[in-house]
């Protein structure tokens, strides 16, 4: 049995990971440590909550006393750190919590991992640490880290701390840097679910700037299969980029969503641009494809339809969110821009 501490497992990617992995493997014992911020939701984990090889602890990765207690009590030998503040726009409104969770929190986990001699520490990072690309070229693992937003700066800082623990103490670390994810259970502040829900409610779809910023989209299950492979077979000390080779300008995504929902493009509203908005992200994933034999399995055309259908079928899941405290954030965010 592998005793694994998964942090942030009640969020979008973490909960998809736990649901996927516990369905597949019974040699993993997962302790899910999550603070249940606005982005964490235990409903995401209904299908695994009664499994014997799963337990949930509500808590903060910054709390070193709690983290050390968990390592000791559950004999943790593996860590997969998904926990983070994850939204660029929120980091622009206020950066402190990003530094606290993403940098200090990661440091607390690293210190505990060192103390308890963990066998693998996997840091879930992002392609945003590389900064922004011009019209050509791709991010490789050798691209220098050059983050632009408070979010990406905090993730890059965490990555550097992880690498320093590998270099200095020989902690067996790994880092994955994935591109933009989409799929079921994504909190509707990110582009794709926000646009789906606004379109369903016949609200305006706020597209930043001219809509020509490019992101490289990957279905969340493809990301998580890559995480599993890196966790199992990745070479200690290495960084692995993960991307599905699916670059698209934002406006194109928005139009695809409207078309699928049979809604008019008149709902599109171009709004004031995000400050410091990165122009283009695009990933070269040849290292993980060659070394670990990973490749993406989902194509965008069908996976976006699955995603839209999931939101159509799971109105209860998102209605609670859009009618609650989130609405205040939404109003604040978009009243500044529109
Ligand atoms: P999310 O915001 O949906 O979920 C984050 C989770 O972390 C939530 O459940 C939240 O409650 C928890 N959390 C936050 N602060 C915490 C703390 N101090 N202690 C314990 N738990 C805490 O994020 P996501 O989209 O699922 O992203 C997960 C990870 O993947 C993040 O590290 C993010 O940087 C990275 N990532 C995300 C994307 C993407 O497109 N969403 C792409 C690449 C990498
Ligand atoms: P987002 O989902 O916030 O991810 P990230 O900023 O981490 O890439 O945004 C994806 C792209 O969509 C980004 O270029 C900003 C743009 N965007 C909009 O145009 N309107 C919106 O309301 C949001 C949330 C994002």
Task: Describe the overall structure.
43% of the residues lie in helices and 17% in strands. The model has no long low-confidence stretch (mean pLDDT 96). The protein has a domain at 2-182 and 217-248 and 281-301: NAD(P)-binding Rossmann-like Domain (Rossmann fold), CATH 3.40.50. By secondary structure, the chain is an alpha/beta fold. Helix 2 (64-73) runs parallel beside helix 4 and helix 4 (96-115) runs parallel beside helix 5. The longest helix has 20 residues, at 96-115. The protein is built from twelve helices and twelve strands. Strands 3-2-1-4-5-6-10 form a seven-stranded parallel β-sheet, sandwiched between helices. Bound molecules: nicotinamide-adenine-dinucleotide and thymidine-5'-diphosphate (TYD).
